[in-house]
Design brief:
By secondary structure, the chain is an alpha+beta fold. The chain has one domain. Helix content is about 20%, strand content about 20%. The chain contains two helices and four strands; from the N terminus they run E-H-E-H-E-E. Strand 3 and strand 4 form a beta hairpin. It starts with a strand and ends in a 40-residue tail after the last strand.
């Protein structure tokens, strides 16, 4: 299985480059960060035409993450909050809390 990640820094601006790369690299899963799109603006149909399912979570402008999985791979049980409190939004400054909140030994979630 081939899994790739890409900080696209605006999926709208780089959609053609992403689609071309998907065709060349042929990954099973592509994880994208900083899509800078709201969920309603995610290019679900364009990815479907390329043979991928797209799941997106974002509020536009400042954030956004997406998973593109090759058709045939199941994407289900999508969770955008792990039930351990409110989702912390990074906002325009790019920070999601203070250094006091950081614990390098905290449980990682993937």
């Amino acid at each position: 299985m081939r899994i790739a990640t890409w900080n696209v820094n605006s999926l709208k601006a780089r959609q053609e480059a992403v689609e071309n790369w998907l065709q060349r690299a042929d990954p099973d899963i592509l994880l994208m960060q900083e899509t800078k799109l709201g969920d309603a603006d995610a290019p679900v149909m364009a990815f479907a035409m390329a043979g991928y399912q797209l799941v997106h979570h974002g509020e536009g402008r400042w954030n956004g993450v997406a998973i593109a999985a090759r058709d045939g791979l199941a994407i289900d049980d999508i969770v955008t909050n792990f039930g351990d409190g409110p989702v912390r939004d990074s906002g325009p400054g790019g920070t999601a809390g203070s250094e006091d909140d950081f614990d390098p030994f905290d449980e990682a979630r993937v």
